[in-house]
Amino acid sequence: MKSFWSITLGTLAKDIRLEWRSKDALNAMLFFSLLVVVIFVFSFDPLAEESRHIVGGLVWVAFLFAAVVALNQTWARELRNQVLDAYRVSPAPANALFLAKVLGNFIMVSILEALMAPLFVIFYNLRVLGPAWQLIPVALLGTWALVVNGTFFAAMSLRTRSRELMLPLLLFPVSIPAVISMVAATTNILTGEDSAHFFIVLLLTYDVVFTTACLALFETVLQAE
Amino acid sequence: MKKAFPILAVLTAVLLAYAFYEAWWVAPVDALQGQVYRIIYYHVPSAWTAFLLFFINFIASVEYLANARPSTQRAAKWIVIAIGTLGFIAPFIPQVRQQLPVGMYPSSVATTALIIAGLYFLTGKYFPGQDLDLLAVTAAEVGVVFCTIVLVTGPIWARPVWGIWWAPGDIRLTSTLVLWLIYVSYLVLRRFSDSAQTQKLAAVLAVFGALDVPLVYFSIWFFRTQHPQPVIGGGGSIDPRMLHVLLINWTAFLCFAYLVCWSRYRLEKLRREVEEAEVLESLLEPAGPVAPSSKAKGALNRGPQ
User: I want to staple A130 with a disulfide (CB 3.0 to 4.6 A). Which of A150, A192, B28, B291 is the partner?
Assistant: First the structure.
């Protein structure tokens, strides 16, 4: 019997290797969010001052949509050849599998954000007026908030008809407080008008609450057939 | 029990008519808002009813999940007892009492804790097994209807009073909208789910939704809110005559909600019984193996929605 973390890391390594060889999800995600950015550029043509107020929202909407593209792929891969059924009957803890998937998605979405953030800076001529280093915790916590619930609801929507459609329907309502916090924190940092501390703490709370809830309930969802 | 239904229906109709009369002719005119304010007698009771139903849905979902295993069932019982006892005693301890926000009385906190615990055990007693899920889906559906009434009457009231249809920064407006969205997604999940485990998935989603509500509330906390302070137990003041009419209206709405829930519950229960009977029948049918099995599969696949 392997330990919890070795199972997690093994699954994570497998997923990363698969992704590295095919690059399906990453390419789709990158191109999709590039399209979203370009469409935003055509839709809004703001002055530098205005753009600071709206880019926080645009960035996170683009990442949210792109993350859904990646999250939909997460479990679909395991359905082929009944891999998921094998997981179910194996003695491996369900949460190890869940954490591996969350970490995998977290890495993917973080790569996407690192590549896309410069594009927003270029297109909108951004210059941060607040403490820029705070954008890093906001990005990390915000991405975790999207990914942890997204992975959970993706597993849940496996059991439904038209599952690709189902994920955003389940994920977006529950993510609203996280999205409000991310957007408000980013806007506050970009404009430097207000402190972002409150929203960072709120994001942290959101992450802790929902990570706990996901870990407590994932086994129920995995075994539901 | 079935005889009680028409009696209750007539009583509810009478009560609603009386509440309508009180709201339109007896209640005094508001000094600042004029006649427009009378929408309060529909807006506020609907909101209270919707929140109560969502709360029942949450309790039933938690209990449904907890009952899956005997160990969690026992643990959940003790946790609920602990919540009830602690919640009842703690607000009266002076140190804790000082921490309570202004306008929140220790007695109201204690009563709420008792109601939570009581509701948990009552639903467990009267709705055993799958009936808990029936209760959850009934409460969610009727709750969404009442919540829709709140969201429709809100802007109608806000336009003449605040001058705008919708205040995006308003804490109660926005959290009600998010609550509505969460419960609509709950109903969508039930509609779209294929497996026989829909109940479990829906219960999980209900728990997530309930966890979300306080976070929604705090995330909008920073924006200045346009709503009046809570009417009962809060700093805001309301004419006692208006409060009287408001409570009559709420009673009427509660009776109406109870009536609708009752008939929806019976309908859902009958639907499931018919489904089970169909499956059983198709299994027992001695005819060729292809047709009955496909029929049984179809019946199963429709699933409890």
Answer: A192
